[in-house]
Amino acid sequence: MVCIGLTCELARQKFAGLHAAQDNTATMQTSRIVITGAGLTSPIGNNLAEMRASLLAGRSGIEFIELRYVGQVPAGVCRFDPLKYQKRKDVRVGTRAGSISIYCANEAIADAGVDLDGLDRERVGIYVGTTEHGNVETENEIYNLSQFNYDTKFWSHHHNPRTVANNPAGEASLNLGITGPAYAIGAACAAGNAGIIQAAQMLRLGEVDVAIAGGVSESIHTFGIFAAFRSQGALASHEDPTKASRPFDRKRNGIVVSEGGCLYVLERLEDALARGARIYGEVASYHINSDATDYVLPNATRQAACMRQALKKGGFAPGDIQIVNMHATSTPQGDIQECQAVKEIFGESPETWVNNTKSFIGHAMGAAGALELAGNLPAFEDHLVHPTINVEDLDPDCSVPNLVLDKPRRVNRVDALLNNSFGMLGINSTLIITRYTD
Q1: How many helices (H) and strands (E) does the chain have?
Q2: pTM of the entire structure?
Q3: Which residues have a Cβ under 8 Å from the Cβ of 62 and sit 6 or more positions away?
Q4: Residue pLDDT, tens place only, 236-283
C-alpha cells in the first residue's frame, strides 16, 4: 500500500476496524445459542409446569366445540387470561393470535428474568411462526357483512392490520414496546420450529441480542380449516373427544385442530451466563428442507434426509439422541410415512425413545413444533419421557422401536432431544436441543 501521512494513518485505522468487525462476525457465527425462558398456552396448561404435569399424568386437553357451518367437532381450546397483559380495547381491536402471542411473549420474558428496561429494545427480535393467520378475521368480517346484505360500509377498518401475516409478531412488538425486527415465519405446520431456527440464526449474525421466538395458532376459530380437512377426509372424529387424536392407532382417522402458542427467549450463551440466567437447553442443530413432491402427502425419504442433515450438522450420531418427538398428526398415511423415516434413522438406536404430543393437545398448526418441544424440555432434569396416549391398537406400520405408550418412561439420561415438525407443500423441519453443559 502506498500512502502519505494522514492518509496512510486513516487507511490503517480503516483496515484495523474492518479486521475487528470480521473477528466479531466470526465470533457471532460460532456463538452457542441457549433457551432461557418459555411462555405458553395450550389445551393442557398455561405454563410449562402445568403442561408437563398433564403430559406425565396422561391427561388429554381435547373437547367438543360448536363451530359455525361445521357443527360439533373435537378441538384443543386454550383458556388463558388475555387481560393479564392487554387492555379490553386492545383485545377488541386485535386478534386471537395476537393475544396468544402477547401472552406467551410476556410470560417468556418474565420466566427468563429479562429486564426489558435495561436493554436496547432495538436489539430485541420477535420471530413468530404462523400457519393460518388471517383466515379467522376474514371469515368473521364476511359473516358480519352478510347480516347487512353485504354492504361493505360495514367492513371493519381494523381488517387490514388484523390479517397481515406479521400480525402476531407485530401485536407483541406494540405491547412490549420492542423496536427490533418483529415478523412472521410462514412455514405451514413446521413454523414453530422455523421461528426458533430463525431466532438462532439472527443471534449468530449479531442482528439482535435477545430473541423471542416460537409459534402461535388461532386455527380453531376458522371454520375453513375444519371444512377443508373434512373434505379431504382428514378431520378426526370420535364419540369421546379426548380420544380423537390418536396417532399410530390402527383406527386413527384424522387431525384434531387446536389453538395455542409457545414463545421462547433465546440468547447467546455468553450473554445468558453474564446475567446468571437459568438455561433450559441449547440449540445444538437444525435443518429445513422440502419434499417437492406433493401438496399435502408427506415424503418419508425427504423427512429422513431432514433428520439426517440435522444430525450431521450438529456432529451427532443417531444414538446420541435420547428423545425423538414425532410430528405424527393422526392421519393414516402421514403417520406411516414419518414412522418409516424415523425407523430408517433411529431403528438401530436402543436408547432413543420416541413420543408424540399431539395425542394430548391435537394439532396446533403454526404453534405445534414450539409447543411439542416445550413438552419434552423438562426431561433434561427429570429424565422422564412423556408417553403417547390413545394407542389402543398399534398399527403395525407405525411400530417404531422404543415408542413410549400410556405411561412415562424413566431413562438413565436425557442429553439431547430431536423435534420434528412437517407441513403442507412439503416443508420439513428438525430441531435438536441439548442439555446445557459447560
Answers
A1: 15, 15
A2: 0.93
A3: 43, 74, 75, 76, 241, 242, 244, 245, 256, 258, 360, 361, 362
A4: 999 999 999 999 999 999 999 999 999 999 999 999 999 999 999 999
Residue 7 has pLDDT above 90, yes or no: no
Task: Determine phi and psi for 336, rounding to 5 degrees.
Answer: -65, -45
Please tell me the distance from the alpha carbon of residue 82 to that of residue 101, in angstroms, as a whole number.
Answer: 10
**Residue-range definition of the domain harbouring residue 354:** 284-434
Q: What does the alpha-carbon distance between residue 31 and residue 27 come to, in Å, rounded to a whole number?
A: 6
Total domain count for the chain? 2
The CATH number of residue 149's host domain is: 3.40.47.10
Q: Is the same domain home to 269 and 153? A: yes
Which cell goes with 198? 430463525
Residues 65 and 209 in one domain: yes
Q: Where are the beta strands (DSSP E) in 178-307?
A: 182-186, 210-217, 257-258, 260-268, 281-290
**Which of 274, 304, 326 is the endpoint of a domain?**
274
State the virtual CA torsion across 213, 380, 248, 359 in degrees, nearest 10.
-60
Which residues are annotated as catalytic? 189, 327, 363
Same-domain check for residues 215 and 161 = yes
Cβ-proximal residues to 360 (8 Å cutoff; 6+ apart), any chain: 43, 44, 54, 55, 59, 60, 61, 62, 245, 375, 389
The cell for 258 is 387446536
Q: How far apart are CA 299 and CA 268, in angstroms?
A: 35
Is the residue at 10 inside a domain?
A: no
Report, as an integer, the average pLDDT of 345-358: 97
